[in-house]
Write a structure and sequence with these properties.
459 residues, single chain, two-stranded parallel ribbon, mainly alpha
Length: 459
Amino acid sequence: MAKLWEGRSAGEISKIADCFNSSIKFDKRLYRQDIEGSIAHAGMLGECGIISVCDADKIKDGLRGILKDLENGSLEIDETAEDIHTFIELVLTERIGETGKKLHTARSRNDQVALDLRMYVRSEICAIIEKLKALIIAITDKAEQYKSCIMPAYTHLQRAQPVTFGHYLLAYSMMFLRDTDRLSDCNKRLNFSPIGCCALAGTTYVTDRKYEADTLGFDGIVLNSLDGVSDRDFCVEYLSALSLIMTHLSRLSEELILWSSWEFKFIELSDGFTTGSSIMPQKKNPDIAELVRGKTGRVYGDLLSALTMLKGLPLAYNKDMQEDKEGLFDASDTVSACLDVFAPMISEMRANTSNMRKAAEKGFINATDLADYLVKKGLPFRTAYKIAGKIVAECADCGKTLETLNLQEYKKHSDLFDNDLYSEISLETCVNKRISEGGPSLKSVEKQIEFVRESLKNV
């Protein structure tokens, strides 16, 4: 196809260079944003009298026809075009004649690309937020189901203190809620229109940039034309937000992988989200969770690629910036696919509450509560801590737990121990007496569930 920039160059570009320079194989997915942006631009040109209203309407009708034909499959994108912007403009001119050549008045591909990309990221943010909400609901529903199921929580992968499975899962609900906030904040900063910045220095035409911004649903316009065409902060910020989503998905994946192993057997993933082995018939592999964990590095790479591409660029537009799209598209597609598969995997997950309880009964995870018992009797915490540590060591040596050590053995360490000790160090007491806000007590967990559900109403 013809080049929009033909005229300055006398010779033809090398076919190898032309293929290398072309972006249509990946930027063709921006066709809708490009057409919607062009319809708004044509409307502005007509409103400002830069072209006639009749010509503006003719251009808009032509663009709508192209959009319709692309979406119903009657028009195929010609990948010999340099980019999607070239393809649409040339098809428009073929269909409506010389009037189509007026569309590009008072704009450049530089601000056109920046506009399309902002519109794309904005729509992707909305879609990702909806998928996050579905995942948060799935996790929170599961947390409510298991809000009283006692399990050990860990530090350093060592059993630490008792919590409930519901409390544990809600930690991830909070992470993903922050991700929705992060995406919403990103949208606030990107939602300003660059169209009208042109190549880098605006235009001599009397345009109305705010008309286009309003038409396209932006909150305002980019106020510096150089910044308008060269800014890709919103891409980096979006990629950063996606990377954190993948961090959280990967951490939860790691938990699911560990918990579903025979060494833990805390949960069972449904057959729909596991695979078998080609040689070992007993295997039930958490491949979906593992694949999500693996794809995290891919999204990190997309973020690093964008940062590296931008770090040495002078103002304003440089061809390096063509590299902003493939990584962006890849990261967005990857996160979207991971969220699509994760929500139903969580919904179909089953907890082995018996195994969780058995694990909580071992490892002396109520030792802190034993120390707190002595503190409430008047001992300084450090003294109580030392006594509790000696008792744990004694239990480990003789194969007992804190619950099975008799009172006489306790009294060897302190006369403050009494019959009320055993109720104070029971796992139920250890969990439900943790009444500080955000803790694992039943009331606290129910309050957290309510917070999550109410927060989702405002997302």
